[in-house]
Amino acid sequence: MSNIPNNLNTFRILYLIKGILTLGFSLFFILYAGMGLFFNTAIEHSNANNDLPFNFGWIFVIIGGIGFIISIAFGILTLLASKYIREVKNYNFIFAIAVVNCLTGVLGILLGVFTLVELTKPEIKQLFNKI
Question: What DSSP letter does each residue of 34-48 carry, written as one string?
Fold first, then answer.
């Protein structure tokens, strides 16, 4: 980077950790979808199949699949933001990921807000050639 004191290296490490945690969290959705498949099998093999209007296990499978795809995509985007912070490029991408991070819980809110504060400083914009 440069001789200008900034927190970009700290944010790079935090985005790396957040991306890995998000990818790890995606395993929860695999378990959720697996639970739905278990319910599907249990309902198909039970005699109570005639009482249900539909097999509710598919709801678990669909929610698990959608959650898995979203969490994998967001984890990869967060890891890309970490890479771009290290390379000091793609200011707009990092800015957008910081905004989206504000929607992902306490860790995301803190990381997103502090990143946005850091990115709006003139010396940081100058590093990204945004002035």
Answer: HHHHHHHHHHHHSGG
32, 63 contact by CB (below 8 A): yes
List, in order, residues 6 or more apart from 90 with CB less than 8 Å away: 84
SS (H, E, C) 66-118: HHHHHHHHHHHHHHHHHHHHHHCCCHHHHHHHHHHHCCCHHHHHHHHHHHHHH
Q: Are 80 and 100 in contact (CB under 8 A)?
A: no
Q: What confidence score (pLDDT) does residue 129 get?
A: 83
Place of tokens 């995509």: 73
CB atoms within 10 A of CB 64: 21
Structure tokens at 96: 């957008």
Under a CB-based contact definition with an 8 Å cutoff, are residues 64 and 29 in contact? Answer: yes
Q: Give the Cα separation of 4 and 6 in Å (integer).
A: 6
Q: What is the pTM of this model?
A: 0.84
pLDDT at 40: 85
**pLDDT for 55 beyond 80:** no
